[in-house]
Amino acid sequence: MLSALQDRALELGAARLAEQQGNWRAAIDDDYVYWLVLDCPGKSVNTIDRDVLTELSHHIDHIIDQKPSAVVIRSAKVAGFAAGADINQFVGATTGDIRGMLKEGHLVLDRLADLQAKTIAVIHGHCLGGGLELALACDMRIAVKDASLGFPEVMLGLHPGLGGTYRSTMKADPVEAMTLMLTGKSINAKKAKAIGLVDAVVEERHVGAAVDAALHNDIEPTSHGVKHQAFSLKPARTLAAKQMRKKTAEKAPKDTYPAPYALIDLWEEYGGSEQAMQEGELSSFAKLIESETSRNLVRVFFLREKMRGLRTGKSGVKHVHVIGAGAMGGEIAAWAAKQGFRVTLGDVALKPMGKAIKAAFKMLQGVLKDPLKVRDALDRLIPDTDGLGISRADIVIEAVPEKLDLKRKIYADIEPKLKPGAILATNTSALPLPDLAEGLSDPSRFVGLHFFNPVSRMQLIEIVSHDRISEETTSRATNFAVELSRLPAPVKSAPGFLVNRALLPYMAEALIMVDEGIPKERIDDRAEKFGMPMGPVELNDQVGLDVALDVSESLRERLGGVFPSTPGWLKKMVEDGKLGRKTGQGLYELDDKGKPQKKPVESLKDGSKDDPDLIDRLILPMLNAIVACLREGVITDEDVADGAMIFGTGFAPFRGGPINYAKKRGVDEIVAKMNALKEKHGERFTPDAGWDRLRG
């Protein structure tokens, strides 16, 4: 009975059984409706490229000849309508080539928009970028309830380039459409209907009826006529554009992220004329794609794809057991449940378990934004104080405090309970895996899975190997990371692995600067202007001064003089319980939301201490540590090293990664600068021998 209420397979109308021709399937039904279904062969998702649009133009020729009563365009892919434009087509292309491709695309979508037959886009799943621009060229858009719509181009240093800038602002609420393009965020079908981006929202099983209703004019297009009329006047757009620039500047400086400002300029100047804005869009897009920012952000896109491509198959993991219901363990468990895994969460005490479930509920609400999905995820997250899930789990992840003896004791207790083939993983951020593996009867199935905090936002997982791990374990752990919608970075067990080894010198140097009397607000401000998501002083507070001190001293012990010493006053702060965000007091005073109370940089006295080498003192030791890791084989791929630092620390994405930044700046210049800093500040700035290999 209940199965009758479930969604059916995708409604493809007459095209369901039609023969595939290139990227499309097409057929006319009994009501003379032309069903045109996008189904890019060999891909799990559709992308909009030159071939797709060229073939669409041929179908438009047939439509003009056959004069159907209507045209329905939708996707045969379960994942969604289309994931956007194929970025590969722009790689290596000249500005002229790109402008030519875009002009051709505009002509095709203009032809679609000008058809006499009513055109209806049926949207399910992801409808992004070029896919949404295709849908906007239709007269109406019917969205299935699960649809997610957006313009992510700004993440690539661009704005929409196939008519999205003017069609979205002409058809939807102009300010809401601009916000969608400026943020790059996706919205659900309900929100899209509210702002006028789609005209109806239905369940998949009602798509056929909705198409029929659209044919008979029983669905009225969503109208924002009053707003469109108001913003057809330039003074109204200028006023709104001023607010948009102000809000954008809070997150994206114009000199490093020009795309949102170019979009605002485009709309302010030409938003009252579709034709003028179309021409402006073509010129603006072609200019942006040649910018250094866009090239680097496109590089970041491909780094993400490369890291996802490290997956070699399925992990075989269905049941996850997490040991330790602290901040990290609880969020790892909640995220795994969100991704569809059955999860048991164990801890020796009930209090942290209760806090973990409460935190999971809050995180899932924020991420899923759907009460039913939140409920389903929580149903998969099972408190397990007795550890009954250990023997049933396909992977057991230990996430207890960084104490070697404690972890070994836990392994000795649980290893005999593991089922055959189960993986034993540790979330350690610093302890050597060979030391942790001592005493294990089967170290071949032991691996490090180093998550980053907060798990729900940080995309990286370091896959930490050791001499006795099996290839199968490494492969399955990598596959599992991708199944968690995270990006794997394979590293070898070494002090700090890759990310902490690179990040800690940045944080430690900031403390030395504070000790020298340089205002902490100035240090953080310069780092943020360089492109870091958070200044190093604030980052110390966020991580916890006790944690920062512990990891720093551990790295210094293992790396020797190449790692900076910790100021004595920091130890005193930790002893006094001033630990940063977790106690409300640290290097900064923090409010009840953990936000640091900073003095405005402009208010700092002219006579306050400064250092012209401030940024190089922060960033170059980070680069030096990454170069050392490459030389030592901690990580073997420069691209993955760049990706790990971007997705694990937020290293300025518009710079394309630290190694990319170093090569573009010039290895010789960096080595010379480090030698100069060494003369001035000490041995910690000694250039690593690995810089020589980057000269090649």
TrEMBL record:
Gene3D superfamilies for this protein? 1.10.1040.50, 2-enoyl-CoA Hydratase, Chain A, domain 1, NAD(P)-binding Rossmann-like Domain
Query: Is the keyword Mitochondrion in the record?
Result: no
- Pfam families listed in its UniProt record: 3HCDH, 3HCDH_N, ECH_1
Region Disordered, residue ranges: 586-609
Name the enzyme group at the top EC level: lyase
Family as reported in the entry's similarity comment: In the central section; belongs to the 3-hydroxyacyl-CoA dehydrogenase family. In the N-terminal section; belongs to the enoyl-CoA hydratase/isomerase family.
Q: What is this protein called?
A: enoyl-CoA hydratase
Name the species this protein comes from.
Fulvimarina pelagi HTCC2506
